[in-house]
């Protein structure tokens, strides 16, 4: 039995520990947002987060995640409110859409480390994700837009009366 946290919730699966995480997510746990692309960690379609880092789930054995935190595209938000999801929709990024969950998961790690990335930052961070449809210019624009949305959300959260109340309460 392998136990880990998936999208913030504890899970246990009874699967061979050598099974790639991708297949456990899709087949055992029914989370089909993470896609199979190449099976060799070259395309990025299967990107998920493990302890806050992007990994290729097609080559990561289940044993690697035991006791750890895993996040899939389903874990970004349940209502498409994550800045990356909003930006992807606003800018109509996907063409076929197959690679997009991996693209978004890689972009999420980039924005967590570099909140206002340059084009060079984006190109370097996203270089391991292949889009056969060639939507790279839209992906780059969407990452910039997501950075703006995240900045706007953070500013709004700081100005929120609820947060002012919470801060005042915390100071007591």
Task: Estimate nothing, just give the exact number of structural domains.
Answer: 2
**Would you identify the regions where 5 or more consecutive residues have pLDDT less than 50?**
164-172
Output mean pLDDT: 93
Output the CATH topology of the largest domain: DNA polymerase, domain 1
| CATH class identity of the largest domain | Mainly Alpha
By CATH, the superfamily of the largest domain comes out as [2Fe-2S]-binding domain
Helix content estimate:
40-55%
Rg from Cα:
17 Å
Judging from the principal axes of the Cα atoms, what is the shape?
A: globular
Major sheet strand order: 2-1-5-3-4
Describe the protein in words.
It is globular and about 45 Å long. It has helices spanning 21-28, 83-90, 100-113, 119-126, 136-159, 161-170, and strands at residues 2-6, 9-13, 47-50, 53-56, 69-71. With 172 residues, it is α+β, with helices and mostly antiparallel strands. It has 2 domains: 2-75, Beta-grasp domain (Ubiquitin-like (UB roll), Roll); 83-170, [2Fe-2S]-binding domain (DNA polymerase, domain 1, Orthogonal Bundle). The longest helix is centred in the last third of the chain and has 24 residues, at 136-159. The relative contact order is 0.14. Mean pLDDT is 93; it is low at 164-172. Helix content is 42%, strand content 12%.
């Amino acid at each position: 039995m392998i136990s880990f946290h998936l999208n913030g919730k504890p899970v246990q699966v009874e699967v061979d520990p050598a099974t790639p995480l991708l297949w456990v997510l899709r087949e055992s746990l029914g989370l089909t947002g993470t896609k199979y692309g190449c099976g060799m960690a070259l395309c990025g379609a299967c990107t998920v987060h493990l302890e806050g880092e992007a990994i290729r789930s097609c080559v990561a054995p289940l044993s690697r995640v035991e006791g750890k935190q895993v996040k899939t595209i389903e874990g970004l938000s349940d209502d498409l409110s994550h800045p990356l999801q909003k930006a992807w929709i606003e800018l109509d990024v996907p063409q076929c859409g197959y690679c997009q969950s991996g693209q978004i998961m890689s972009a999420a790690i980039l924005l967590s480390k570099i909140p206002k990335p340059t084009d060079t930052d984006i190109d370097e961070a996203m270089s391991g994700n292949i889009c056969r449809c060639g939507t790279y210019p839209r992906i780059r624009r969407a990452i910039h837009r997501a950075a703006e949305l995240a900045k706007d959300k953070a500013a709004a959260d700081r100005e929120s009366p609820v947060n002012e109340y919470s801060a005042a309460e915390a100071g007591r």
